[in-house]
Write a structure and sequence with these properties.
The complex is a heterodimer of chains A (305) and B (261). Chain A has 305 residues and is an alpha/beta fold. Chain A contains eight helices and twelve strands. In chain B, strands 6-7-8-3-9-10 form a six-stranded mixed β-sheet, with helices on both faces. A four-stranded antiparallel β-sheet of chain B has the order 2-1-4-5, with helices on one face. In chain B, helix 6 packs across helix 7. The longest helix of chain B is centred in the C-terminal third of the chain and has 18 residues. The chains are: A alpha/beta (305), B alpha/beta (261). Chains A and B meet through helix 5 of A and helix 3, helix 5 and helix 6 of B.
Chain lengths: 305, 261
């Protein structure tokens, strides 16, 4: 089921007066060149001439420019914000791209050919014919240890990555375990250390050898990087403190999933709370297939939140 | 003695550097053998720090060469190496102790992380072992191992300087460059630091180049001495010889300027 025309967009007939997907063709070519270079050097940050978009920095301008450069009239677009298709950022970006391209949009991961995301990777495994575009606020994984940009570039060039482990060391020294929970640094193809954008580390294993192409766009810092299909992505760790993902004591209250990333939702002002799947499409898919959690009747209540 | 050890560890040939039209240092030749401590003295602005930066691969000299005898590859021109090799050399075989510990430490990282950084940079990936090594080195430089998780900006000046030394020595370098290691410390702390340095240099068989304007420091630490003035070496020799029987008028002035309490 595609949501052609949802959000009041003029699907099928893009807005008059704008080029397809808002950006002019020369800009798209420039961004595609940067993307090709990024794909050729997995994990390496490629500068590009970022354009002003009709959206503030920090709202996904990098991701939108990448999406606008790779989208075609036959694509089916899905936009996720925090796992959901219905949050402000996702609705805005989906409507913007639907209006300027007229492509079909969908909430279903399985039906999408192009997925722009903020903060999550869908639970459903992605395929080779899909592209995942990430919105990246801070592309430089070394930034917090080394504030000087020329120095971080040199460190990347020389694969001088000792300081990344100093950061993890500090975590363990302070908290007894690696407490970094999102934007967890990864080593791509055995060469470049990369910031996976603020996805939870729960999603890091999904990046490893993913069949879909992964593209990352940072609008403010004007950087594009990529992980080609089937590329090794390894989360940094220590031998005696191996990488591990978050676990929950609960399962999803709606669909009963015990293996998905859960959001904790406060449901009243008396301390009531429940855990539900962060990936709303995954949760709906499971409920449609007959799975039920401990509080299946809470669907409407949670969705309104 | 084998031919191997007769070769100097570090050799500078005609090292000169200018900052635009301003002279940094001119035509400096020196040899440093394994296990030897060389002091460089002179007043402020005499080119000591420029020379040290040239020797320690941080400032490419305008003219001249700096040769280093590596463990495995024979003698190399350090400015002829690729940057990756030079960095590896700087963090395995060499140590650099800065005058201001803030330049040599990561103040936002705990003491243990500071000591462990070099180990992690050369591939150590076992948290427990890194921490044990860091703890052992803190004790060795007389920092209470209980402070391993404290940040260095909570340390006193003397402790910061000792932490910097531990951070440099953890990979067991053969050569350490020190720029005013006792600068800004009060005399009793200076005395303990010098004592510590002397012990470490002797125990580990380190070679060191120590830049200082404090003649007492060189008397205690250095085997040989270079006296610099206006970017040039005006006198060199064994430390006691230079300090007790200075030949050059400038050295005589320098020696006679020291206050006697």
């Amino acid at each position: 089921m595609t949501m052609r025309g949802m959000d009041g967009s003029t699907a099928g007939a893009p807005l008059e007066g704008y080029n397809f997907a808002y950006l002019d063709e020369q800009t798209k070519r420039m961004i595609r060149r940067a993307i090709l270079k990024a794909v050729a050097i997995p994990g390496h940050q490629v500068p590009f001439g970022g354009r002003e978009m009709p959206l503030p920095y920090g709202w996904g301008t990098g991701g939108i420019q990448v999406t606008a450069s790779v989208i075609g009239p036959d694509d089916v677009l899905k936009v996720i914000d925090q796992g959901s298709d219905d949050t402000t950022n996702a609705v805005n970006i989906r409507r913007f791209l639907a209006r300027t391209t007229g492509v079909a949009t969908t909430g279903r991961t399985a039906e999408a050919t192009l997925i722009q995301t903020r903060h999550r990777i869908p639970e459903r495994p992605l395929r080779e014919d899909q592209i995942l575009v990430y919105q990246v606020p801070i592309p430089e994984p070394l930034r917090f240890m080394e504030p000087r940009e020329p120095e971080t570039r040199r460190m990347h060039a020389l694969a001088d990555y000792g300081v990344m482990h100093v950061k993890l060391y500090e975590d363990i020294a302070r908290c007894g375990r690696i407490s970094t929970a999102y934007n967890y640094p990864v080593l791509v193809n055995g060469r470049y250390v990369m910031a996976p954008s603020p996805i939870p580390k729960f999603d890091n294993p999904k990046m490893d050898r993913m069949p879909a192409l992964q593209l990352f766009g940072a609008g403010r810092e004007k950087r594009i990087y990529a992980v080609p299909p089937h590329t090794e992505v390894k989360s940094l760790d220590f031998e005696d403190h191996p990488f591990e993902v978050q676990r929950w004591d609960a399962c999803c209250a709606l669909c009963g999933a015990g293996d998905s990333f859960l959001d904790e939702v406060v449901v009243d002002d008396r301390g009531g709370r429940m855990f539900v799947c962060s990936d709303s499409d995954h949760c709906r898919e499971r409920r449609d297939a007959g799975h039920r959690g401990p509080e299946p009747e809470a669907v409407g209540q949670v969705q309104e939140i | 003695m084998t031919n191997e050890t007769e070769q100097p560890l570090l050799r500078a040939v005609g090292v000169s550097h200018w900052y635009g039209g301003t002279l940094g240092c001119r035509d400096v030749d020196l040899d440093l053998h394994a296990g030897e401590v060389l002091g460089i003295v002179g007043e402020s602005g005499s080119g000591k720090s420029t020379l040290l930066a040239c020797l320690s691969a941080r400032l490419r000299p305008a003219a001249g060469r700096v040769l280093y005898r590596t463990r495995h590859q024979g003698t190399v021109d350090i400015y002829g190496l690729g940057e990756a090799e030079r960095r590896l050399l700087m963090r395995t075989d060499w140590g650099i102790v800065h005058q201001n510990p803030r330049d040599g430490l990561r103040l936002a990282v705990s003491a243990g992380g500071n000591v462990g950084e070099r180990l992690m940079a050369v591939g150590a990936r076992h948290y427990g072992r890194i921490r044990e090594t860091a703890r052992a080195w803190l004790e060795r430089v007389e920092i209470d191992a209980g402070r391993i998780d404290d940040r260095p900006d909570t340390f006193s000046g003397g402790m910061q300087q000792r932490l910097q030394i531990a951070r440099n020595l953890v990979t067991q370098p053969r050569l350490v460059f020190m720029d005013e290691p006792t600068g800004g410390l009060d005399v009793s702390v200076q005395a303990r630091l010098l004592d510590l340095l002397r012990g470490l240099v002797a125990d580990l068989g380190l070679a060191a180049v120590v830049v200082t304007h404090d003649l007492a420091v060189t008397r205690l630490l250095a085997h040989r001495l270079l006296v610099m003035r206006r970017g040039e070496v005006v006198e060199s020799g064994l430390t006691d010889q230079v300090l007790d029987d200075p030949q050059h008028p400038y050295t005589q002035l320098l020696v006679s300027s020291v206050l006697q309490p």
